[in-house]
Amino acid sequence: MWLQAICIYTVFIIIGCGIPTAAEEHSLWRWTCENNRCTKIRNEPENKEPVLSLEACKMFCDDYGLLWPKPTIETNLGNFLSKINMNTIDIQITKQGKSDDLLTAAADRFKTLVSSSVPKGFSAKAAGKSVTVYLVNDNPYIREFSLDMDESYELYISSTSSDKVNATIRGNSFFGVRHGLETLSQLIVYDDIRNNLLIVRDVTIKDRPVYPYRGILLDTARNFYSIESIKRTIDAMAAVKLNTFHWHITDSQSFPLVLQKRPNLSKLGAYSPTKVYTKQDIREVVAYGLERGVRVLPEFDAPAHVGEGWQDTGLTVCFKAEPWTKFCVEPPCGQLNPTKEELYDYLEDIYVEMAEAFESTDMFHMGGDEVSERCWNSSEEIQNFMIQNRWNLDKSSFLKLWNYFQKNAQDRAYKAFGKRLPLILWTSTLTDYTHVEKFLDKDEYIIQVWTTGADPQIQGLLQKGYRLIMSNYDALYFDCGFGAWVGSGNNWCSPYIGWQKVYGNSPAVMALSYRDQILGGEVALWSEQSDPATLDGRLWPRAAAFAERMWAEPSTAWQDAEHRMLHVRERLVRMGIQAESLEPEWCYQNQGLCYG
Amino acid sequence: MALHRLLALMTTMHLAGVLCNVESTFDEITPQIYEPSWMYKCVPDEGCQRSEHPRPTLSDNSTSAFFDSLDVCRIVCGRFGGIWPKPVTAALSSQTVKIHPNYLRYDLLNVPAETRELLVEMTQVISNNLLAECGGHVTEVVDTQVVVIIVVKTAITSLNWNTDEQYMLDVQTRGGEVSVHIEAETIYGARHGLETFSQLISSDKRDFSDVEHCGLVLVSGAKIRDRPIYKHRGLVLDTSRHFIPMVDIKRTIDGMATTKMNVFHWHATDSHSFPLEASRVPQFTRYGAYSGSEMYTTEEIRELIHYAKVRGIRVVIEIDAPAHSGNGWQWGREYGLGDLAVCVNAYPWRHLCIEPPCGQLNPANPNMYRVLRNLYQDVADLLNSPPLLHMGGDEVYFGCWNSSQEIISYMKDQGYDTTEEGFMKLWGEFHNKALQIWDEEISAKGLDPQPVMLWSSQLTQAQRISQHLDKERYIIEVWEPLNSPLLTQLLRLGYRTVSVPKDIWYLDHGFWGRTVYSNWRRMYAHTLPRDEGVLGGEVAMWTEYCDAQALDTRVWPRAAAVAERLWSDPTSTVYSAEPRLQRLRTRLIARGLRPDAMSPAWCSQHDSKCL
């Protein structure tokens, strides 16, 4: 009786203790690890080997088990799985400090994740070992985001007695300990043959990210997203250790941001009065992100990409100008008029309220993409201003005008945030490496690259000492593919980008010897053709492929990650994320047989 | 019995209304920011435009084209309002009248008694859709009586290519009363009429208002005459590469009913998995389903078929054979029946099948035909009469059959050599034997032989098809790309066809290999030959890279573009269709689907400004 109990409780991988139980006899299939892949085989009555479920098999059939992103320093998963009782998980926070509330929230999230690892339609037996998780945060007073925050952690699991498993997570900040909890949750799998939760028993993991900035951009102006859908996105980000939600909150099409001092902007500019974000909404998202180690970074795109909302201010030019193809990249057109003094008061008010709403951000994104000279040039007022300044009306003069705008806006941003925080701008004609230093100080500005990964601008900017965030559209624009929404054919950056390409998109390869200047990267979901209905599918699981590239910068290619990738997709679905499918389920069940 | 049900229906509607009335004001929690600052204006030739609120100084006349709600603007703006697919002729009033489901009554006195029960179910679907316009709660109650008089001339309840789907719909408002008159040959025509009626209705939910307020608005007068151009307007869904839960299939059927599609082509099985429960052969799911919870029980299938019928949709079950069969067929030896299929899950797969896992039925094994007969019996038990079976028949790999000694010696015995033509004979023999089995099984049910469907393949090539496949018996579903001459050739040979040009109407394209995504405009712009032999077309959802998570956004609203092509075959431009499609999209959302976005919301608030 005692011997049999051990066999049920412990799935023994190397040497089986094969006494099939009643439950096992019901299973027609089992999986076995051969040549580093799990093979689906018939569970014959005369079988003497341990009967493994697919997930249990996968956990030991790959050096990184089912972990995503894979740890970077050390991964040792041992050889044993222990049955655990989900209801007896106890989490101890050992050191006290001002980040305790965050750690408590992370512990709650961990418990939710454990219960969501049970697939729909199943329920885990409430029997097995009890689990105690010790969270050791060596700097419990840190709760601020920064580009040099320490996200490293160590994770140890051991079984101290026949009825107990201990896990210890040690980190140098809340952010690291939190990541450790995510990893721990990935070491718990469901055995759908016996309906048990299993934990990997003898574990040592040491881990830290390669890049400090790992983001997703969401555009909430071309189409509106509910707060609930944004939170769902942050949940999925936390699961794969992404740490920045870049909120492209306004654009020419709509202005959903509610400002107390300038209420007309959203009143006129929102798609509807319910499609707005109040300060309270944003703070809710910011707090939600903080608990999940995700900074919520605001962008106020200017001087282009404005329009709706500004119509009564007299501060824009070429708003809704037709034919739009002459004045902007997509309808409706609109640009701020930099010659108006009042504009900068407006901007300051916007920045002040953004600083209040996005209370924990350590950076500010000022947009700065796709400025059209022709738009500015269509205004007599701007022409006169330029003539008064003894500028011509040529390309370089419009850059001066743009710079005039940027300098003024920069001062107001510093004033509004009360500090000289790092500013981010998109690549543009202003950031061209041949003249960028005339306009933007490399210690003040971070450049976000959205041209292709082969663009010589990347090396040019790096050589001049600029820090970069990579969002090269050929791999990281997740709106690519699909039909065009203006005109016929497919959209401008078609075709659709498969996860394999996302995974292979290595900033290290682009940066060569300047790797230290790469802060990281960001996936962008521009929303001309998506809204909450498509959100999950557009982002996931492709953003998970990106997350492993950013966290680990692996030297291996997607082929080595494929099986873990298929699993992380299943995990996201169980969390309630409507992630796209990558392959037929047959391929998930028959590892290694769907090669090209 | 039927009248009793009707009363029950009216009672439930009434209750729903009463519940809504209770929830009246929520002023405290709505954002306090807004005063009305814009409305929607119906601009001739442009459509609905978000515009400044009209000044009170303007005369009443000029404000009549302004609407609080974009959806309401859409139902009266433009010749066809918010109707999708476009009817043959429509004259719509530019006025609207407020209505409430509590005061909506269906008069079914002029329909044959034997159709009444089904028709009651159809009206229930429509009533639920009206409630859905307001998220289930129509808070604004008006007591305008709406009487929908339905006249159905025949008692036919079977669905096939001869089913008459035409209808006429008249709406008149007099005094405080609206009378709606729907007349059709069959209940399916009447159902389409009801669907169109529901598309004359929108919620008047304003952009700038208390969120809880919602009333229904109906176009006050309409005269619509309508019938489909093509008889076969289908969607094929693959449930083998990925299992698609029943609830998601039903939601897809809801979308099809909204767009008057009439064939749900269920690609139920493939080599990857066999989720279709067969009561005579339990091994199919036991060996072939992805898991015990990823299968369709007989009861669920029956329910789905009825669910579709109530929505005017015929279910065609496809048992793809002899290729695309593997998992689910691999138990023959164990049961002493020999190999029912060959090269199942064989590797390397390149020369044995189009994509892993491989598998083809074993035509040398008589037991295979016995098992197939049992499967066909089960399918015949499930389908409504007259049953339509799709026999698959695509992508047979001779390399697979050639890898089996048993098949090679069988061919020798039959006098087939192992050349291409020899294998063609074997393939043709399979289909004819399978058809004979199907004929026998449905004749055992007292039915005449029925045509069956088959995918185009090497066997259906123009120079070969007549030797193997009888044009009276087989309807060929042509999936060759646009530049292929096959469709024209088959029409010339006198075959009946269903067209699914893969480079235009495959919904999975654009996510793998070198395939290109087809946007709705491209799908819409494609036309089929107007030929007696073209029964219609289908839009295809293969699921290698799609499961229930992405299903809605892959299928909708693009399938709707094909639906209008097949129903109306319009000569008007894609651009003129866009505002109506935007309205359809909000309608699908109200009915619980998750259609993909077509453009920034700004474009839907400014019709024809994003061209």
TrEMBL record, chain A:
Pfam family, one: Glycohydro_20b2
GO biological process terms held by the UniProt record: chitin catabolic process; glycosaminoglycan metabolic process; polysaccharide catabolic process
Matches recorded under PANTHER family: BETA-HEXOSAMINIDASE, BETA-N-ACETYLHEXOSAMINIDASE
Residues at the active site: 370 (proton donor)
UniProt-recorded Gene Ontology molecular function terms: beta-N-acetylglucosaminidase activity
GO cellular component: plasma membrane
Protein's recorded name: Beta-hexosaminidase
Source taxon at top rank: Eukaryota
Domain Glycoside hydrolase family 20 catalytic: 211-553
Keywords: Carbohydrate metabolism, Chitin degradation, Glycoprotein, Glycosidase, Hydrolase, Polysaccharide degradation, Signal
Organism the protein comes from: Bombyx mori (Silk moth)
Signal peptide: 1-23
Family: Belongs to the glycosyl hydrolase 20 family.
Catalytic activity of the protein: Hydrolysis of terminal non-reducing N-acetyl-D-hexosamine residues in N-acetyl-beta-D-hexosaminides
Keyword Glycoprotein: yes
Enzyme Commission no: 3.2.1.52
Domain Beta-hexosaminidase eukaryotic type N-terminal per the UniProt entry, residue ranges: 67-187
TrEMBL record, chain B:
A Pfam family assignment: Glyco_hydro_20
Active site residues per record: 395
Protein origin, superkingdom: Eukaryota
A GO biological process held by the record: chitin catabolic process
Name of the top EC class for this enzyme: hydrolase
InterPro entries for this protein: Beta_hexosaminidase_sua/sub, GH, Glyco_hydro_20_cat, Hex-like_dom2, HEX_eukaryotic_N
Any one Gene Ontology molecular-function term assigned to this protein's record: beta-N-acetylglucosaminidase activity
Xref: PANTHER family: BETA-HEXOSAMINIDASE, BETA-N-ACETYLHEXOSAMINIDASE
Keyword Electron transport (UniProt): no
Residues in Glycoside hydrolase family 20 catalytic domain copies: 230-569
Upper taxonomic lineage: Eukaryota, Metazoa, Ecdysozoa, Arthropoda, Hexapoda
Signal peptide annotation: 1-20
Catalytic activity field: Hydrolysis of terminal non-reducing N-acetyl-D-hexosamine residues in N-acetyl-beta-D-hexosaminides
Full protein name: Chitooligosaccharidolytic beta-N-acetylglucosaminidase
Domain Beta-hexosaminidase eukaryotic type N-terminal positions: 84-200
Family: Belongs to the glycosyl hydrolase 20 family.
Keyword list, A-Z: Carbohydrate metabolism, Chitin degradation, Glycoprotein, Glycosidase, Hydrolase, Polysaccharide degradation, Signal
Gene Ontology cellular component terms for the protein in this record: plasma membrane
CDD domains in the record: GH20_HexA_HexB-like
UniProt EC number: 3.2.1.52
